Amino acid sequence: MENGLIQRLIEAHAVERHQNDIAFTKSFRKFVARQRGKITKEQTLEDWRLILGAYDYRLVNLTADEAGATMVLLEFFADNAKTAIPDGR
């Protein structure tokens, strides 16, 4: 059974499923990196929800907790050397 958050990230082309794993797309990782580069103050979960909604309109309806979980997953993938995959593979 697919996790609701993961399914929404797939639909927004932020992640792609490969066999039994997921990986964040390069475009999503670049988008988040650019947004982090522009940050001049501490971001709240609500701020990240709005930022993710700017990536894809389907993510604007994430809860603040889901936005936070997305950022935690992204950090986990980055820390564990999960390679970003090209979009649409």
Separation of the first and last Cα atoms? 22 Å
Main beta-sheet annotation: 2 strands, antiparallel
Overall strand count = 2
Low-confidence parts, pLDDT < 50 over ≥5 residues?
Answer: none
Quaternary state reads: single chain
- What's the tally of helices? 4
Query: Strand portion, in percent?
Result: 5-15%
Order of helices and strands: HEEHHH
Portion of residues in helices? Answer: 40-55%
Radius of gyration, CA atoms, in whole angstroms: 12 Å
Strands of the largest sheet, in order across it?
Answer: 1-2
Secondary-structure class: mainly alpha
Shape: globular
On the 0-100 scale, what is the average pLDDT? Answer: 84
Written description of the protein model:
The protein is mostly helical. Helix content is 54%, strand content 9%. The chain is built from four helices and two strands; from the N terminus they run αββααα. It has a two-stranded antiparallel ribbon. A hairpin with a 2-residue loop joins strand 1 and strand 2. Helix 3 (45-55) packs across helix 4 (64-79). The longest helix is centred in the C-terminal third of the chain and has 16 residues, at 64-79. The chain starts with a helix and ends in a 10-residue tail after the last helix. The mean pLDDT is 84.
